[in-house]
Amino acid sequence: MTSLLLGIDVGTTATKAVLVTPQGHVVSEGRAQYTTDHLAATWVEQNPEEWWRTLCAATLEAIAKVPDVKILGVAISSQAPTFLAVDKDGKPLRPALIWMDRRAEAEAQELANKYPNISELTGNRADPYYVAAKILWFIRNEPKLYANTKYFLQIPGYLNFKLTGQFGIDKPHASLLQLRTADQSGWSKELIAAVGVDPELFPEIADCSKLQGEVNLQASIESGIPVGTPVFFGSVDGASAALEAGAIDPGVVAEMTGTSTVLIMPTDGTVRNSAFVAMSHAIPGRELQLGAMVASGASVQWLHEKILRSNEPIEKLMQGAQSINPGSEGVLFLPYMMGERSPIWNTNARGVFFGLSLTTTPEAMARAVLEGTAFALLHNIEIARASGIAVTEIRSVGGGTKNALWNQIKADVLGIPVAILKESVGAPIGNAFISGLGLGLYPDIRSAVTDAVSISERYQPVAKHHAHYQDRYQRFRSLYVNLKDEFDQSAKSAVYGGSL
């Protein structure tokens, strides 16, 4: 019988389950997709039952590939943060508002006006990205549902409830509620009062590797995970991806590429800078500073499917983009397709192509998208360095690492190596490590991570390209500065309010 750890990650578009050896080697994978409902430009919801359906489908697929397997433990991570209200039976009262949803802009601004020092109080700036503003919106707009709320959960907490019948929130997710103190030691009295939420509406908050419960019979029947399998509290996807990348010491930064890109920056302590998302994580002696979040591979997919409407594979478009010189023939791209979080924190920002001409090709536009996301990474890294965070190497994980051109562009723009892991599936491997830590398989997380990380390739910056990109980067920054007021003004009339 093969003894393995099960790591599960619920991303923005799909759930992935991976069976991993305690040494971090992937044995099998399962994956299932679900839909996202874009109700308006900034209103984005998902059906929580789809998370459970796809978890079951993904785990069944992964388990079916390994005959006679013993699952030692399981931990789940997810996109974050999420607004999810459930009743006393753990049933969702409404669709979940995911991290993309920015309908609580007015509420976030209200909190910022009331507490200009909110980042000092909670470790994070006021923004509709966080749960606090969304709860305030919920109380005001859906009071009857609020009255029936038993708990506010995050995705791992909801799925862990489905598996074990026990409620809980892991510490990394709790730090993204924006209702805790900056040191995460308790509730912020000021924010709790401002939002008007009862702290009793949040279940137990615990370390990622703490045991939350065991898989029950009904969950086992649906998911294929054996009855009695230990289930640990879990984490946020970015923090788990950092574990897979071995980014646990200052200098080595993990980049998780998916629907958005996340930089996870280990520090020797909490960095108080409102450009960042401050997040606590269970790594002794280290705080993981969750930083840059920018549009990513989804921008390329959008360009291919919505604008070019090409029947050719996206891989062919990327091959063509390789023939385009750095600078994309003068085309610049602002990758703010859903507004933007770090470092500009502007709900009204939007994607922009600049410099198009009658000779512009789809390949040049594709390369401009890759360069634009790399420029946004550089913007975040500049602010990180100004805050005292060391950045000497990027370790990239996730689906975007398969794009060699994108990896090289990042190295050229950033001027530092971009390392790709030999075996990278993202957050699920980090989750496997978390469950192994909870089971006592490792003396500490460093032991697990250090032995497992293996680099397959390092993309080194090309000096000539890097020099050229410095000017293009300044044009990228200037473009947003000059458009910022227009973004804000345009948002007022972006939705037609008349009748036909």
Summarize the structure.
The chain has 500 residues and is α+β, with helices and mostly antiparallel strands. Helices cover 38% and strands 23% of the residues. It folds into 2 domains: 2-238, ATPase, nucleotide binding domain (Nucleotidyltransferase, domain 5, 2-Layer Sandwich), CATH 3.30.420; 246-492, Nucleotidyltransferase, domain 5.
How much is the average pLDDT?
A: 89
Please list the strands of the largest sheet in the order they lie side by side. Answer: 16-17-15-14-20-21-22
Distance between the termini: 67 Å
CATH architecture of the largest domain: 2-Layer Sandwich
Biggest sheet record: 7 strands, mixed
Here the CATH topology of the largest domain equals: Nucleotidyltransferase, domain 5
**What is the number of helical segments per DSSP (H or I, 4+ residues)?**
17
Poorly predicted parts? none
Per DSSP, what share of the residues sits in E-state strands of 2 or more residues? 15-25%
CATH class of the largest domain: Alpha Beta
Q: What is the helix content?
A: 25-40%
Number of DSSP strand runs: 22
Summed up, the domain count is 2
Overall outline: globular
- Label the structural class: alpha+beta
What would you give as the CATH superfamily of the largest domain?
ATPase, nucleotide binding domain
What Rg do the Cα atoms give? Answer: 22 Å
